[in-house]
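Fold it.
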Amino acid sequence: MNVFVFDIETIPDVESGRRLYGLRDLDDKEVANVMFNKRRQETGGEFLRLHLHRIVAISVVLRSRDRLSIWSLGNPASGEAELIERFYSGIEKYTPTIVSWNGKGFDLPVLHYRTLLHGIQAQRYWEMGEDDQSFRWNNYLSRFHWRHTDLMDVLAGFEMRATAPLDEIATLLGFPGKMGMSGAHVWDAWLAGDIAGIRNYCETDVLNTFLVYLRFELMRGRLTQEQCNEECALVRETLAREDKPHLSEFLEAWVR
């Protein structure tokens, strides 16, 4: 069993904003404000189109046969290209089931655009059965395949109007949910130089996703109740062993 749960955090791609809108004389914050204003004029909100996001953190939970690991790819100084390369190298190495919350609607399209921008190869990820027949009916890209399990999409029955926020579902199930930050505050944290806080927040989000995934696997009969309890106990043990403040806080907030 190789399960690779992931989440990304993004900020406005101000370099692309400069090129698209001719804003070379403005600083990053000013460029981002122009981008937000243009988006408000289009939609009434500030959420940028996906090709205008830049990835600043990718956090994962890897559950393999003999271990459970929770970490953010690279280090606080790693550039976007390195984070993306590390993400795809994990897929090349483990060929895991990748699990997300709204990965189809956000994380993966953003990764696609940024991978294209940086010229990064991801052959295993893009395999559709041409070279490996096992990917023909189960690959990372097709919506109804399991090699990428988008929990939000699946639980909503693939109906957009039925989707729910991860925070609310996690909280309903007794998991901590959002802790201290949200995606809307990542840009402010970036401007303040708090990349560590962004990475920590991303790790707690991916932990929530993994715990919801365990309950999902119980629901569809791929885990027994005993096995689900054992997996949750392993998560608790791992968080305690890591002895990091944000993970300890997550553990304390987890309803027993």
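The radius of gyration is 19 Å.
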